[in-house]
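stuck on this fold:
=====
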Amino acid sequence: MNITIQHLTYTYDGSADPVFTDLTARLDSSWRLGLTGRNGRGKTTLLRLLCGELDSGGCIHMPLKAVYFPYSVPDPSRTTMDVLRAAAPDTEDWRFLCEWNQLFGSEEALERPFRTLSNGEQTKAMLCALFARDDVYPLIDEPTNHLDLHGRGLVADYLSRKDGFLLVSHDRAFLNRCIDHVMAMERSKITVMQGNYDSWETAFDLQNESEAARNETLRREIARLGQSARRAADFSRSAEKGKFHVAESEVAALDRGYVGARSEALMKRAKGIQRRREKELEEKSKLLKNMEQVGELKLMPLRHPKQRLISVENGAVVYDGRTVCENIRFQVVQGQRIALGGANGCGKSSVLKALCGVGGSLRGDVSVASGLIISYVPQSTDGLNGSLRDYIAARSLDETLFKAILRNMGLSREQFDRPLEHFSQGQKKKVLLAASLSTPAHLYVWDEPLNYIDVLSRRQVEELILEYAPTLLIVEHDRTFLANTQAEVVELDRKENIAHG
């Protein structure tokens, strides 16, 4: 069965810039389709259009009812099984159990209140309800944000056994494990191709290289045509003046009528040349590809007089008198990239907050170098509101550098004038990252900085880390990012035996 999108156009209320203009595509509902593209390109908007939550110009034909994931749970105090039944009415319980056993090692959580499940467990439970039905087409938006490494692998393998869904994710390893087609929202077009993420990335890089070379040739031709058009315009003006100014040597030999006719012919010829040059210039300019720019980011790491910046021995994370993680031991030496790993809820974020002095709970022998300047990226984007200008002023950022980083990460200049609360989650994360990159520091501490961030920006951050070699302490579940940045993973294990997120 085919999903058809014809001449889709959509603009948000109050915005002058359309998200989509005359978008047309044909998709097979049996594909395991991954949707990728820069933040702010309209991926979530497209999903909401497909499931009928937004009205648009154009025509969308869906052979099955589209269901958006994640969906809300009105009463999380109900048991998990009751939540599944409410999410997929008229579905027999054995169908839920069949899906559940593929993602969970035990059925115990089905009888617990839904709110007692971890965020990762809630994500997996909602996926069970989604795929227990045969009458819907799943639209899955960013399912990995609450999943640890183990959970991501489990869900990727689960999805790889399904047929027919549209998935938005920026985790490259996750996409490679579970999709067989890619739909990419690029600057000037939408591309649909068979294969996994790596297949698309290879084709994308080759296309960008080819278009960059072609653009350079076109720019040289445009410059030449521009000069030619200016010369034609000068010739036209000279011919126009010729009607009224005749050299004294010609006055006796030529009458005014002849001079006027000759000047008129010259002017007509000059105008024709000018129009042809300008038309050629316009046509060449239209051929310039609106290629996806992946600009370079910059960083200004500081050098600390001490080699060892942080040391944690016999560390433990304690919540309300309850130890959730113990025997934490690691050091951060200048130039190192340390990634804290472990299941959801083992205290990774708490360790980072405690080291940065912004909360958290870390006990044990903890040593932080005197005078250490830390640049911190929190996991949450809560509290980002107001104007970008006020945000810059409140943090004393270098406005030129900060905005240049945002531009290189794909934000348009028009976006700078919008309130921060109107930014997408990915754009908000970029604001936090750009603020950190704009801040000279001895140590960069980032807590899941890539949540919601598009794959091209992830590649930019990887290249930045490899070029500038900052000292980095990070919590991140993107396997490809950790491998590409050569981060050393320090595992934190929860004290209790719990399911992975």
